[in-house]
Write a structure and sequence with these properties.
Blueprint lengths: L2 E13 L2 E12 L3 E5 L6 H8 L5 E8 L6 E4 L11 H12 L3 H14 L15 H15 L3 E5 L7 H17 L2 E5 L3 H7 L2 E6 L2 E6 L1 H8 L7 H8 L1
Parallel strand pairs: 3-7, 3-8, 5-6, 6-7
Antiparallel strand pairs: 1-2, 1-4, 8-9
Helix pairs in contact: 2-4, 3-4, 7-8
Length: about 230
């Protein structure tokens, strides 16, 4: 297997002399879903911002692999333009991605139907519910079909059907060879779908590996839920 994302953050923060995270290193392989978990304030958001190039004060090395070396980011908080319709948001993203018209139309139509937003295409997303806005951001990310997805708290606002659709799309993309780094607080879902888990606390990695390896590092019994390991390690 080849790495589609390699992260080695020696230190990073919002001010030059005040690092928030240290020694965060991991890889995401083709077809792999890596869960990034930790309590509030542990450093998950700073890690994501660092690897996306959103912070000025980062000492580290980030490498995106894959055949096209392309990544897509799905933020926790939707990014909306007040006077653009849903379809116009998708057109803007397609233009930024450099997607051809026919490719854009096929992918956008398919994803709108899958997330049941076809009849909302000419509405302004500023008036959507939180869940509908989140589905729009997922569509924008999935349109690119990148080598790696970075997804931040994707389940916020999604109803059970939308969650099922999202997970099905993730599985399809993983079979295509895309890797996924997903930051989430939904530990029961992370336990079920993640290939490996990175647990951060106090700005550093405190455990990493498969669920079985996390249980061993936490001193938990075989079969213990991820939640129990989380409490033991943080």
């Amino acid at each position: 297997m080849n790495n589609v994302l390699s992260v080695n953050i020696r230190k990073a923060g919002y001010e030059a002399d005040a690092p928030v995270i240290r020694d965060i290193a991991f890889q995401v392989e083709e077809g792999e879903l890596v869960g990034l978990i930790g309590p509030n304030g542990a450093g998950k958001s700073t890690t994501v911002k660092s690897l996306l190039g959103m912070l000025r004060h980062v000492d580290g090395d980030i490498e995106v692999g894959g055949s096209r070396k392309r990544w897509a980011y799905v933020p926790e908080q939707p990014v909306l333009y007040d006077y653009l319709t849903l379809w116009e948001h998708l057109q803007l993203a397609a233009s930024a991605y450099g997607l051809g018209e026919s490719t854009f139309t096929e992918r956008a139509e398919r994803l709108l139907e899958q997330f049941r937003l076809t009849h909302d295409r000419h509405r302004l997303p500023a008036g959507f519910s939180k869940g509908m806005q989140q589905k729009m951001m997922l569509i924008v990310g999935f349109m690119l079909e990148p080598d790696v997805y970075v997804v931040d708290e994707p389940f916020v606002g999604l109803d059970p059907r939308a969650t099922r659709d999202f997970l099905a799309l993730l599985e399809t993309e993983r079979r295509r060879g895309a890797g996924v780094l997903m930051s989430t607080h939904v530990l029961d879902t992370a336990e079920r779908i993640c290939s490996r888990i990175i647990l951060i606390d106090g700005g550093s990695v405190v455990a990493r590996g498969t669920l079985a390896e996390i249980r061993e590092q936490a001193g938990c019994a075989p079969g213990a839920p991820l939640t129990e390991c989380f409490y033991a390690l943080t």
